[in-house]
Design goal:
This protein is an alpha+beta fold. 40% of the residues lie in helices and 24% in strands.
């Protein structure tokens, strides 16, 4: 078992290895495989977008749809109305959070806005969520942020729903600020 864990540790970037214990190595490996899976899906989706031209007004899905399995917040692709899949609040973006112990994977798909990434990074830090890895993909005016986060000991958010709600509220503030400019 120790030999396999050693090999696994050697295959992963250091940002996925916070501790050397077995649970952390396995948790980091799960997050790393999910990241690789996401990149694979993105490359397949990017190839699909390059091979097809979408007609304006067609009922095609949004970019990166295949990357969202069970989002806590979703936007309607049929209209400008956005609703939460959990508690029917206004959704600012498609938001999906998964967790393994103290590590969280956050996916955000939204319209691109000026200084949005800077404000998201700053907001996550203020929530005591440390960014271990950040990936940004764009197609036209749609942006996908994929983040690996460490939930710090003094973080008040303890569940995927709490993190998703906090991120949705943060994106709401960012959108309001963009409108005021």
């Amino acid at each position: 078992m120790n030999e396999y864990l050693s090999v696994l540790r050697g295959l992963m970037p250091h940002s996925y290895l916070q501790k050397g214990d077995q649970a952390s190595i396995i948790g980091g490996a799960i997050n790393y495989v999910k990241e690789l899976e996401q990149k694979l899906h993105f490359l397949g989706g990017h190839k699909h977008v390059n091979n097809q031209k979408f007609e304006a007004g067609s009922s095609s899905s949004l970019p990166f749809d295949e990357l969202f399995t069970f989002p806590q917040y979703t936007t309607s692709s049929d209209s400008s109305i956005m609703v939460s899949s959990e508690n029917h609040e206004l959704a600012m973006a498609d938001i999906e959070v998964t967790m393994v112990e103290t590590h969280a994977r956050l996916k955000i798909r939204s319209k691109r806005r000026p200084k949005q990434l800077l404000k998201v990074v700053s907001g996550l830090q203020s929530l005591r969520l440390t960014i271990l890895h950040l990936n940004v993909n764009t197609v036209d005016q749609i942006v996908l942020y994929s983040l690996s986060l460490k939930v710090e000991d003094d973080c008040k958010l303890t569940s995927v729903d709490e993190i998703a709600t906090a991120v949705n509220q943060m994106l709401g503030r960012i959108q309001q600020e963009a409108v005021l400019l």
